[in-house]
Design goal:
The chain has about 675 residues and is an alpha+beta fold. The protein folds into three domains: about 200 residues; about 210 residues, Aminopeptidase, CATH 3.40.630; about 190 residues, Immunoglobulin-like. Helix content is about 45%, strand content about 20%. The chain has 17 helices and 20 strands. The strands form four sheets. The chain has a seven-stranded mixed beta sheet with strand order 13-14-11-8-16-20-18. Strands 12-15-10-9-17-19 form a six-stranded mixed beta sheet, with no helix packed on it. A hairpin with a 2-residue loop joins strand 2 and strand 3. The longest helix is centred in the N-terminal third of the chain and has 53 residues. The N and C termini lie far apart (about 100 Å).
């Protein structure tokens, strides 16, 4: 036994002594490589299956979305929601598979693809989550229709018009639908807001990681989502506003003014025609349209308020009538005066309708846009188009009524007839064109061609929040609004081209500002055009100090051949300083009116702190006046929004040109001391 033990120890020692370090490393390397190969084979199999599952889930999810879209088009909303839910299940499964693959990000070239796939799935799920509330709301509204074939045909784009559909509904059915629309409006708004986030996610994806074909598909999807978002936004606004406007839950009576912006006044135009409209549960109960002089004329023998001084001075009248009631550019302020004057003058003629719910004021711009949708409309053998609407109407009510033997007091009856025919044509449109009508109305609201004022506090807050109520905006920075009032210039505004310039420059420890308005008269003397007479006001921040005015006139060339300089009125209104002056421009003449003033210390402090903001508010009823800015801050700019042309970078001036189709806001960051 001792010998055996000795031999075993000797053999073991021999083996150890003969295993050199190199051999041992080689053996371990072979073992490790074998294990690594096995792991790689297993990992490859695992990742291959994960990728295949991910692709399968994504393809199935996309197919479910396509099915949902088809069901929406057919108004089978329950099925559409079910397909949305199925798509979401597939995308959740795909996200789980993708999570297992995220380790691939460490492999050069694969990281962007994994990140893009992650964004694609997140965006898809976000879009599904956003769309579900709108579809649920739409399903609820449609359930009120109880399978009415006529309505379903209309909503599906059938031949039935809205007037036929509404005419087929009882008052109770209309009320039920309006109630459902009102209750579901927040869900539609929620979907529109959610789609904003979905679009942001998709736009943040580096689509080039997928290749050209997928990149194009993603771009097309974003375009579709944007269109869908805009549609939902329009529908949500209509759902929130229409029930109350259309007399739910109680009847509504509105005073409507057709503001003629060919004869510009502070809130959009001369108040030549008014209408009285009563609606209840979506039905038009009554409507009347009449000439404002039918109220103003009989009121001439009664006691009336004293008009604003410029009206008295330049039109030479000492009583204030309904036609001139919209003197303040702040529509809620003017609307209160318009309503009060309407009641006062209606009492004189014995036609006061009693309590009103609000006022709607609109210019011909909206009617022109609607005519572009419905096409030409004929009334009494006269054809009106988007292009000839204003000229044709003015000819009928100013000239042709005499040739046709129409009494003066009835000369504007054609406005009511045209309104009735246009409404009939609009309500006969199929659904897709109804959406175009909504878009036209929204565009006119954004451009202040339509203004609302309501007694209902919720409705009034709704329109003011969306800047549809014509209230002068509240701002904490610099502010400018140019307001013209055509005073006895006939219908000259369309041939007077305006450009507005605004400049500031350092002046001691303050800043001097200048607002210049150039009037270029392209017209001639005829039955509707004459010299342009306007009382122009500039609304600027409170505390501004007048330095002087250039171009102001005492009166026009006929009344003051010497063309003496005019005075400047300075006063406060709506929390602002107001500068006002008169100017007259002959046909084929160009003249400029310039107000110079010191900016208040509040704006100077803003500039000194390195941040400057400017809000330029357009006058309602105007159409895209040119606007140029030349702002010298005395120190270089760091950034600006919107940005000026790159050729203007690198100095203390902000140079910018645009138009006033909409209100314009500017934000500028300056170098700090």
């Amino acid at each position: 036994m001792p010998h055996l033990k000795t031999n075993m120890l000797t053999a073991r020692s021999w083996r150890r002594s003969n295993w050199s370090p190199i051999v041992r490393v080689a053996l371990w390397a072979i073992l490790f490589s074998t294990i690594l190969v096995g792991v790689m084979i297993a990992a490859t199999f695992f990742f291959y299956n994960a990728v295949r599952r991910l692709e399968s889930h994504f393809r199935t999810g996309r197919s479910e979305l396509e099915q949902a879209e088809l069901h929406v088009q057919g108004l089978r909303l329950s099925e559409a929601i079910a397909h949305l839910d199925s798509a979401d299940v597939e995308f959740v499964a795909a996200q789980h598979d993708l999570f297992r693959l995220k380790i691939l990000k460490i492999i050069p070239g694969l990281g962007p693809t994994v990140a893009a796939a992650d964004g694609l799935l997140a965006g898809s799920r976000s879009a599904i989550s956003s769309l579900r509330p709108a579809l649920t709301a739409a399903e609820s509204v449609l359930s009120e229709l109880n399978g009415d074939d006529l309505i379903i045909s209309f909503l599906s784009g059938g031949s039935s018009g809205l007037s036929q559909v509404l005419g087929d509904l009882t008052a109770e059915r209309k009320r039920q639908i309006l109630a459902s629309l009102y209750e579901n409006a927040p869900q539609i708004r929620l979907s529109a807001v959610g789609l904003d986030r979905s679009i942001e996610i998709f736009e943040g994806i580096d689509a080039s990681a997928f290749g050209p074909e997928t990149e194009l598909s993603l771009a097309a999807a974003v375009v579709k989502l944007r269109k869908l978002h805009d549609g939902l936004d329009s529908v949500s606004v209509a759902a929130e506003l229409l029930p109350s406007l259309l007399g739910y839950p109680g009847p509504r009576r509105y005073l409507v003014f057709f503001q003629n912006n060919s004869e510009l006044r502070p809130t959009g135009g001369f108040l030549g025609v008014y209408g009285l409209v009563e609606v209840m549960d979506g039905s038009l109960v009554s409507t009347t349209v009449d000439d404002v002089y039918a109220l103003d004329g009989p009121s001439e023998s009664t006691e009336r308020p004293v008009p604003p001084e410029p009206i008295r001075r330049y039109i030479n009248i000492d009583k204030w009538y309904l036609r001139d009631a919209n003197w303040s550019p702040d529509f809620p302020t003017s609307a209160e005066v318009m309503e009060r004057f309407f009641h006062e003058e209606s009492v004189v003629v014995g036609s006061d309708p009693g309590e009103l719910d609000g006022i709607v004021a609109l210019t011909p711009e909206l009617a022109s846009d609607l005519l572009r949708i419905v096409g030409p409309v004929s009334v009494d053998g006269k054809t009106f188009t988007a292009e000839n609407l204003v000229d044709q109407l003015e000819f009928e009510v100013e000239r042709n009524y005499i040739a046709e033997g129409i009494p003066f007091h009835a000369r504007k009856g054609i406005v009511g007839d045209l309104t009735d025919e246009l409404l009939a044509r609009l309500t006969a449109l199929p659904l897709l064109d109804q959406l175009a009508v909504l878009e036209a109305v929204e565009a006119n609201l954004a451009e202040s061609q339509v203004l609302f004022w309501f007694h209902d506090s919720e409705l009034e807050r709704f329109v003011l929040d969306r800047d549809w109520g014509g209230r002068l905006s509240d701002t904490t920075g610099d502010y400018v609004s140019v307001i013209d009032a055509n005073l006895a210039s006939y219908k000259s505004d369309p041939v007077v081209l305006r450009t507005v310039g605004y400049s500031i420059r350092p002046s001691g420890d303050r800043f001097e500002a200048a607002v210049s308005v150039t009037y270029d008269h392209h017209g001639q003397f005829d039955w509707k055009t004459t010299r342009y007479r306007t009382y122009a006001r500039v609304y600027v921040p409170a505390g501004a100090e007048l330095l002087g005015v250039d171009g102001a006139m005492y009166d026009d060339r006929l009344k003051d051949p010497a063309r003496r300089p005019g005075q400047v009125d300075v006063y406060s209104e709506s929390g602002r300083t107001v500068l006002g002056a008169f100017i007259s421009v002959e046909p084929k003449e160009k003249r400029t009116l310039t107000f110079r003033y010191l900016l208040p210390e509040s704006v100077t402090d803003q500039i000194e702190a390195g941040e400057y903001s400017l809000y330029f508010e357009k006058q309602p009823g105007t159409v895209a006046y040119g606007l140029t800015l030349d702002l010298d801050f005395g120190k270089n700019l760091t950034s600006a929004s919107p940005a000026e042309d790159p050729s203007e970078f690198g100095d203390s001036h902000f140079i910018y040109g645009t138009d006033l189709r909409l209100d314009r806001s500017f934000g500028i960051v300056l170098q700090k001391p």
